[in-house]
Amino acid sequence: MKILIVGDVYSKLGRASFERNVKQIKEKEKIDIIIVNGENTSHGRGLNEKHYRWYLNQGVSIITLGNHAFENKSIIDFINDTDNVIRPYNFPNKFPGKGFITFRWNNLKITVMQMIGKVFMNDEYLCPFEKTLDLLNKLDSDIYICDFHAEATSEKIAYAHCFDGKIHVIYGTHTHVQTNDARIMENGTAYITDVGMTGALDGVIGVKKEIIINRFLYGMQERFTPQNEGKTQFNAIILEINEISKKAANIDIINLIE
Ligand SMILES: [Fe+2]
Ligand SMILES: [Fe+2]
């Protein structure tokens, strides 16, 4: 079984790059399941219903979110009714939506979950380590896949070691920069610290660079606007899972600049 996981798709250029590349990768690599991080899909902030349906039309099975999950308020209207969208499981319980989805693929029961980190993030989030232990105790799936949405590389690596051999695929999102450490860990978990983003190459992780430079130089608090021109980057990983042994067999990175 082959799974394509695409990192944070950011606004207009991200959607264009996604549409341009996913179809041909799917055919060329014989991809079975597509997972995407969609927290920045709609104008860089959240996911609206139109873009949610657009993902389903592109053959996406699961859309994960992150700290921007509820910045587009329209998600409240559909997040509780969908079986394709998850937000971090360790969000406070009052938050809408669910933190994992279990589905069948051939004879396998697959669970995709999302956790969000606490280091340099919002204090309100519950402990991702504790919540993962709780969740794994409750479930009996054949394959577990986790989007660990976090800022600090140390927190992500500690999480990967903690759940090495228990979660088959652990991949980082949120920093929007692909790391060079994709590997199969000692106990069999396929891991990368960050998949990287899909969208503008020349902004600052998706935002127009002038806005961010002026923020650092002069403290100007201009509202974030997506970089909608110029080159794009498409960042993703391809996982191969052995259906017989139920183990991760390979992890490859994709980094396309166009
Ligand atoms: Fe993001
Ligand atoms: Fe994020």
Describe the fold and architecture.
It is a single chain. The protein is of the alpha/beta class and 258 residues long. It has a single domain (2-257), classed as Metallo-dependent phosphatases (Purple Acid Phosphatase, chain A, domain 2), CATH 3.60.21.10. Helix content is 23%, strand content 28%. It has five helices and 13 strands. Strands 1, 2, 3, 4, 11, 12 and 13 form a seven-stranded mixed β-sheet that branches. Strands 5-6-7-8-10-9 form a six-stranded mixed β-sheet, with helices on one face. A hairpin with a 4-residue loop joins strand 12 (232-242) and strand 13. The structure holds fe (ii) ion (FE2) (2 copies). One fe (ii) ion (FE2) binds next to loops.
Quick synopsis:
The protein is α/β, with parallel strands linked by helices and 258 residues long.
- Spans of at least 5 consecutive residues whose pLDDT stays below 50 are none
Kindly state the number of beta strands: 13
CATH topology type: Purple Acid Phosphatase, chain A, domain 2
Radius of gyration: 17 Å
Strand content: 25-35%
Q: Report the total helices.
A: 5
What structural category characterises the helix and strand content? alpha/beta
Order of secondary-structure elements? EHEHEEEEHEHEEEEHEE
Total domain units: 1
CATH fourth-tier homologous superfamily: Metallo-dependent phosphatases
C-alpha termini separation: 28 Å
By CATH, the architecture is named 4-Layer Sandwich
Instruction: State the shape.
Output: globular
Query: What fraction, in percent, of the residue positions are helical?
Result: 10-25%
Average pLDDT score: 97
The first-level CATH class name: Alpha Beta
What binds here, in terms of ligands, is:
fe (ii) ion
Summarize the biggest pleated sheet: 7 strands, mixed
